[in-house]
Amino acid sequence: MIRANENYQKLKASYLFSDIARRVDQFQKKNPDTRVIRLGIGDVTRALPPAVIDAFHRGVDDMANDVTFRGYGPEQGYAFLRDKIAAHDYQARGAEVSADEIFVSDGAKCDTGNFQELFASDIRIAIPDPVYPVYLDTNVMAGRTGELVDGRYENIVYLDCVKENRFLPQLPKTPVDLIYLCFPNNPTGTCATKQDLAQWVEYARENQALILYDAAYEAFIRNPSLPRSIYEIKGAREVAVEFRSFSKTAGFTGTRCGFTVVPRDCSIFLSNGDAVSLHGLWNRRQSTKFNGVSYPVQRAAEAVYSPEGQAQISELTAGYLDNADIIGKTMANLGFDYVGGDNSPYIWVDGQGRDSWEFFDLLLQNAGVVCTPGGGFGRCGNPYIRISAFNSRDNVVDAMERLKEALK
Ligand SMILES: *Cc1c(COP(=O)(O)O)cnc(C)c1O
Prior knowledge:
408 residues; Aspartate Aminotransferase, domain 2; 2 domains; 13 helices; binds pyridoxal-5'-phosphate
């Protein structure tokens, strides 16, 4: 008889997206003539840019010829891609990151989920609430939490992100070893300033803690004073790992490519106090359990950094940002408080006392518009909904016209 990993039994059954689907189904059956508009999903809707597609095709053609064919590639990613990431995303912005500190992967979900493997099982972890669920659930699976009590796992330090702190996590009152941060944030759409991040870097340096920084939405930042990378903050190289993805940046959600930066200056510690290189550990983990991203996909990702690719992804993200602006303005005109929507594709709307499912139902029943109830991202998400800008302009405009009618 094989015993199960019972940590999986602790996981809160994630009914969020199936609950949404069920309610939408029921609505559609009752209202067969209404075209439901989905502003709930965190997936992009526009095609890969032409420069990316051209490079993708050329990559496939390389595989058709014995001379240019590639078999197993480096587990860390091809140099042609890592060099461009280091030069463009970091060195050009004054952040000291070298190509050999970059690990190309099949996306930020896997990396943010897998990274916790490198840490002891009794470390103290701080996680924002509301949050992208991967950080929390992967630590539950690994046995780092206790049971779920009143919607919260024991042994996790939750960082409440509420109106009073502008939805920004505040330094924990009890000491922690590992901190998950995500900016621009999913689900709230908020951004951290350099001062906000500097405070976390200082905390981590003083407490020998480590920051896992998810910058999946970095490409939506337009305000030049906002940091795009945590390595724009002095001292971060010793205390932060950064996750990035081509998913939201360039439409790679179905194509799969991202990367993680593990600076050579980061150390974690053995029980005897000896330091071990985090870079070395992640390299060992990846070369043991991962065999690299497919060659044509890495060629496609490389094309994001060409001048045409840069212009095209800037237009792509600008289209979503314009949607976000339309959504934000509509909600404000209807008298709702919200954050996000600039430098971010998500709008986080205050339900003004409504439970987040009640607010969700109001939009669905009265307007045929689907959003995401904030409670699905954590206890602090409850009076809010997340509206996503990932849709066509026409659908966003239609949805807002309906909300103006339904909520006036
Ligand atoms: C979409 C998203 C990612 C990207 O995941 P991929 O696996 O690269 O597609 C990472 N973090 C957050 C918070 C996200 O919303």
